[in-house]
Amino acid sequence: MQRTVFDAKLETLPLTWRKAMEQDVSSLSQDLALSGVADVLAVGSGGSYITALLIADAARRVGGRAAEAVTPLEIAAMPERAQGRHVWVVSAGGANADVAAALEAAAQVEPARISVLTNRAGTALTARAADLARTCLHLFEPWEPKDGFLATHSLLMNAVLVARALDPDAVPGTMEEIVPKAGVDILLHDPTGDALRRSTAIIAYDPLLKPAASVLETNLWEAALCNAQLVDLRNFAHGRHVWLHRRAAETVLIGFVSPTGEPLWTTIEAAVPAAIPRVKVQIDSARPGGPISALLAAYELTRGIGQAQGVDPGRPGVAEFGRALYDAQDLARVRPALEPPPVRRKAQASRDAGVPVATTKPIAAAAAAFMSALADTPIDSLVLDYDGTCVWTGHAGTPPGPGIVNALVHLLDRGLRIGFATGRGGSIAEELQSVLPERHWPAITIGYYNGGHIGTLAVPPANGNLPADPSLAAFARALADDEEIARWLDRLGEKPYQLSLVPRRPVSPVALRRLLAQRVDAGRLPNRRMLCSGHTVDVLAEGVSKLNLLATLRSQRVDPQAQSLCIGDSGGWPGNDFELLSAPLSLSVDRVSPDLATCWNLLPGGCSGPDGLLFYLAALSQSGDSWRFQPELLPSR
């Protein structure tokens, strides 16, 4: 048979391998490690589904949490599956309408994190990823920019990258090394001489080699080479063998076998009649590059079956109706019935806290009661968290945007008292003074250092004049002596009233706090309160609390019936707004607690941070000397 398009794609794979070995995978490695914080859902279709399988396996190994690969429809139809999880979205070309719809569906239910892996720049997918909060984009372009009909270069590129991100020594330097190093054999038992021309292939796989078996199954179907049935080596014994018995003359058995699955394949070989042709792809999966060599074996089998069938797998021919099916925007129109976002968030917070939620009816009733109380209670002051609420987390040095500033000035001009509760010191004053009119500085109360120092915007704290806490110094000394904690600690900031610990990526603040709490319980660290922000663990001195700011505003209250409206982003324990958002009137622009009486997030799905704060501020209206919050002014979706 003459040289095919598929042949040409396979011949240049070593160039993509080489390029994959040259890429910096540190960001990808850190992102995979963050899978230890939340369960993982990896989304992909076609060849990208294979990459999703590889990511799910890698995340499961490095993070120890549940991880699964799903198709875009499974997210679009059941988006609640993505809530609170680490969602990976994979698309080689970035133009797949199904994956775009899955990304939007996932974003609406607010996953813990979204990671996008793609192989082409300047697409709608990369642009959308840049717009979404808590989203990390991984862009790696292969040597060959286009795959052709079947995924080849993009899949190999991503397979090598994911393997390297998991273990830098997992992959040989060149593709030419992989077959002898990985111990790959394709053993053909073909007594009839027509094994690769048969109309049906049963592909039995060792679970360690499922991605490679899935590549072959996908290729055989997509290129219309033959019918393909995917089954694991043991599940084959549960009825799948009947097809071989009834249709032996039209079927070939293909096995993807590692040493782990060898006993199962040996049993199959001994039981299946010798007249039935079979192919054994034998892989030593423990050797460097072994699992990826199985992918290459799947390509070779695709090539071989294509030659036997007289079909070019790289250009099998696509009917016009097939193009219409592929180009359809159907998933964007899938609109499953979901609980309202406030109810859904509370339910998830309860589940995260280990409390089962069989029905959301009590939560919906509590939401209605909270919104009624919120609308009926006079408000005389507004207390705002800063990082993650007024400015995006990680944007230190950048003051609030014009929309937030204009809304705050509007409220201040009309007499609403405003306070800021923050873990920062004087830096917040510098940022706010740069955008808020000086006439309002004396009236703005700030709880600096998580409420350790109460002052105004007009008079920022001078660190040299603030007291140091001996218990914090003892905590810092004990940390310095702990070698294991030092491995995960990037830097330690010693401030008045608190220590700010920045974890070394990919360890999250929550994970670092968990390690510290174990040391406290073991008596190896002094017992201090520890709270998490989006990027630090704050260890607090005695008596330090954001509630101190509330107490100050309460002491200035004229109307005893009025309350402070508190807004923050880290309302779930052990977030640094957990105490603040336990106040009777409290709203979150992100995480909530399981408490049904307070700490609600009333924002539409996918809205968070400063964007959400703008919605809340717009829902405040003046009523005489006090203010009211009007939930009906918030968008519902």
Model description:
This protein is 38% helix and 18% strand. Strands 14-13-12-11-19-20 form a six-stranded mixed sheet, with helices on both faces. Strands 2-1-3-4-5 form a five-stranded parallel sheet, with helices on both faces. The protein is an alpha/beta fold and 637 residues long. Strand 7 (200-205), helix 10 and strand 8 form a beta-alpha-beta unit. Helix 4 packs antiparallel against helix 10 (210-222). It is built from 24 helices and 22 strands. It has four domains: 1-171, Rossmann fold, CATH 3.40.50.10490; 172-338, Glucose-6-phosphate isomerase like protein, domain 1 (Rossmann fold, 3-Layer(aba) Sandwich); 342-353 and 360-464 and 544-633, Rossmann fold (3-Layer(aba) Sandwich); 470-540, 2-Layer Sandwich (Gyrase A, domain 2), CATH 3.30.1360.
Descriptive keywords:
5-stranded parallel beta sheet; 637 residues; alpha/beta; Rossmann fold; 38% helix; 22 strands; single chain; 18% strand
CATH class of the largest domain: Alpha Beta
What is the CATH topology descriptor of the largest domain?
Rossmann fold
- CATH architecture label name of the largest domain: 3-Layer(aba) Sandwich
Largest sheet, spatial ordering of strands: 14-13-12-11-19-20
